[in-house]
Recover the amino acids of this structure.
């Protein structure tokens, strides 16, 4: 097949992001159906959607892994990534947003902005991703378009720009009012929404349509001087000019265009496709991608690549997938140049050269082989053995390192052991492959118990991993109950002196360090400060001191938990002209860290989760009583559509089994959403229990 996409202006790389159950996958299925990419509409509840292709996704009715596909609309190529909504799979959203140019954020017309909506919105903010908002489920009882738009203002702090209004709401919802064309659009249910017609706007909606259209003109006149002049002089402004103004405002992220519909009832999808083409950016709109020269420093190290096939190759690996036919599939976004089958590329992150054996154009788990892929496109490659998420591949003659992708740390662990000796090697191999796929999944051997321990973002995350071990990798294993991923830190500053002296008859080992260890604010990680002056420790040994501490941070003296949020300052020491070495200074630094934790007051930290419970009024008392028994702090309560919304901060250790308990309390009528908030100090009495359980 020929190379993908040369006309960059007609390419849209977009993601579909939202809170769980807002209708992302249902919406994506309709986008593919109306563009002719698929010939029938899948249903999440029936388990036959194209994009949720994993057995676990179809059984549970949720998206677990991001899936990529391509479709065409109005002569434009739209590369779509459908992302998960569940917080346990936040890595899939993070890496998708890193490589996309724009996004469609799906909100429920009943619930508006929900907790995970805020999370994915912040992730998109981090990468400066322009977005349009699609208010879905306008056919549901309790749907309220204006309230959903207002929740964007209140919870996201953005300026929504409605381009449509719903024609009725709830069971009266029958179509959308197009504010730019000033027409009512009605869909034919007998054609599965493929046919629709424009009608005149009913009289009772004329005032609303006129008022909202005036707001559009006022808003876009802020970003387009030509439109401003016409607006002030009362001249007519054409549809093309309005589209141009909305596009500018969207790409600059000054306003968020808002459309609405009901994906399940096949209403509103074609205008959403028009909005994707009209308002979201093409690769050309980002003008260039920035990176660094390998091993470069300062301003001179900065590199830029324009999104054209004529520039040197620069591409970012953002996803690794284990494939039973091809082994390893690595998804890449090509920012500049051209990636060709059979070519050799330079991995500037690792410094290694690898060969691209095959290139695929992906549609969920289906693939079409192509000879090349050009700037602005997304594809999957086979061949590179060591290419992992976040690595940059580039032209060997013009190396560049693109910004890596940052992922959150796991908060839940569980012990796992093979059922037989035959499963032991297969388990290690399978876990290695899964860590290659999922940057938020880790495994290691606990040095105290000699058990294999796996770590992830939540109970569901580990449950899915365990299920995949059995189904995909055919590994029989037992998994223990989930445990909390605690952290250790210092409660006060302490200075320690450590001498490492070893005489063996020949050349000995000598290192002498004086270090000050101080606690840092939560979430600051580790910081190393070098205050050595006058060469009392030679410069070549300073990195060894830092490395010795960093390598010891993974297992703290209290209970073997990782050490976080400390600063280590090296302020004095000495060396021996013959016996000093890097290994001696590494050892001395590691011992100094242990000594600091023995001498100073320490804290055990636990992950705190934000929990939102949606419950009928009659169960509020029992729900609050149960939350309070879990050491929670109730942060807010509000009424939304005849249901009570309770928000609380709850220690992760107290949330295990909460789903079952909440079902029991509310007779199955309440639901909850939970996501990581921050780490907090564990109370002294509970700290003793936790550490006792580690001994």
């Amino acid at each position: 097949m020929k190379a993908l996409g040369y006309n960059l202006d007609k390419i849209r790389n977009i993601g579909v992001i939202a809170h769980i159950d807002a209708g992302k996958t249902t919406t994506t299925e309709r986008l593919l159906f109306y563009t002719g990419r698929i010939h029938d509409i899948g249903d999440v509840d029936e388990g036959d959607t194209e994009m949720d292709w994993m057995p676990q996704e179809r059984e549970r009715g949720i998206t677990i892994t991001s899936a990529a596909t391509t479709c065409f609309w109005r002569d434009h190529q739209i590369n779509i990534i459908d992302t998960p909504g569940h917080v346990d799979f936040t890595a899939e959203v993070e890496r998708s947003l890193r490589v996309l140019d724009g996004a469609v954020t799906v909100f429920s017309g009943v619930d508006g902005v929900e907790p995970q909506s805020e999370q994915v919105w912040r992730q998109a903010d981090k990468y400066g991703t322009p977005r349009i908002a699609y208010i879905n489920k306008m056919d549901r009882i309790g749907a309220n378009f204006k309230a959903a738009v207002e929740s964007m203002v209140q919870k996201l702090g953005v300026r929504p720009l409605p381009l449509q209004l719903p024609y009725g709401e709830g069971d009266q919802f029958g179509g959308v009012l197009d504010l730019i064309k000033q027409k009512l659009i009605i869909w034919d249910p007998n054609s599965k929404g493929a046919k629709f017609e424009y009608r005149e706007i009913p009289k009772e909606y004329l005032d609303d349509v006129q008022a909202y259209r005036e707001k559009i003109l006022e808003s876009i006149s802020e970003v387009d001087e030509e439109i401003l002049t016409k607006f002030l002089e009362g001249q007519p402004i054409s549809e093309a000019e309005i589209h141009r103004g909305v596009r500018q405002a969207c790409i600059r992220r000054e306003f968020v265009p808002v459309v609405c519909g009901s994906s399940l009832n096949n209403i509103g999808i074609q205008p959403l496709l028009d909005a994707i083409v009209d308002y979201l950016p093409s690769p050309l709109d980002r003008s260039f991608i920035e990176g660094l020269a390998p091993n470069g420093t300062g301003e001179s190290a900065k590199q830029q690549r324009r999104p054209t096939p004529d520039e040197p190759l620069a591409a970012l690996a953002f996803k690794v997938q284990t494939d039973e036919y091809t082994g390893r599939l690595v998804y890449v976004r090509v920012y500049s140049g051209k990636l060709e089958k059979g070519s050799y590329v330079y991995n500037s992150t690792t410094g290694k050269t690898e060969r691209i054996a095959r290139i695929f154009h992906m549609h969920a788990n289906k693939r079409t082989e192509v000879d090349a892929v050009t700037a602005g496109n997304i594809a999957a490659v086979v061949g590179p053995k060591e290419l992992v998420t976040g690595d940059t591949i580039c032209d060997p003659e013009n190396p560049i390192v693109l910004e890596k992708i940052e992922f959150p740390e796991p908060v839940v662990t569980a012990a796992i052991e093979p059922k037989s000796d035959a499963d032991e090697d297969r388990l290690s191999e399978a876990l290695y492959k899964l860590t290659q796929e999922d940057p938020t999944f880790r495994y290691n051997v606990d040095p105290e118990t000699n058990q294999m321990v796996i770590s992830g973002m939540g109970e569901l995350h580990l449950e899915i991993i365990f299920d995949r071990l059995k189904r995909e990798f055919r590994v029989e294993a037992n998994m223990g109950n989930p445990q909390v991923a605690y952290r250790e830190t210092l409660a006060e500053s302490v200075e320690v002196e450590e001498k490492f002296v070893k005489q063996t008859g020949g050349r000995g080992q000598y290192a002498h360090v004086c270090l000050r260890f101080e606690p840092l604010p939560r979430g600051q990680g580790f910081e190393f400060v070098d205050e050595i002056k006058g060469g009392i420790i030679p410069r070549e040994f300073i990195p060894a001191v830092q490395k010795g501490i960093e390598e010891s941070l993974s297992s703290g003296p209290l209970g073997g938990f990782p050490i976080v949020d400390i600063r280590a300052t090296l302020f004095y020491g000495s060396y021996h002209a013959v016996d000093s070495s890097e290994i001696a200074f590494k050892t001395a630094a590691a011992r100094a860290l242990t000594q600091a934790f023995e001498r100073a007051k320490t804290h055990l930290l636990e992950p705190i989760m934000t929990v939102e419970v949606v419950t009928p009024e009659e169960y509020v008392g029992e729900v609050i009583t149960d939350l309070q028994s879990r050491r929670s702090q109730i942060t807010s309560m509000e009424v939304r559509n005849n249901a009570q919304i309770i928000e609380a901060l709850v220690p992760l250790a107290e949330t295990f089994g909460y789903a079952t308990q909440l079902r029991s309390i509310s007779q199955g009528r309440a639901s909850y959403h939970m996501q990581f908030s921050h780490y907090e100090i564990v109370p002294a009495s509970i700290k003793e229990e936790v550490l006792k359980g580690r001994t």
User: Anything to note?
Assistant: The radius of gyration is 28 Å.
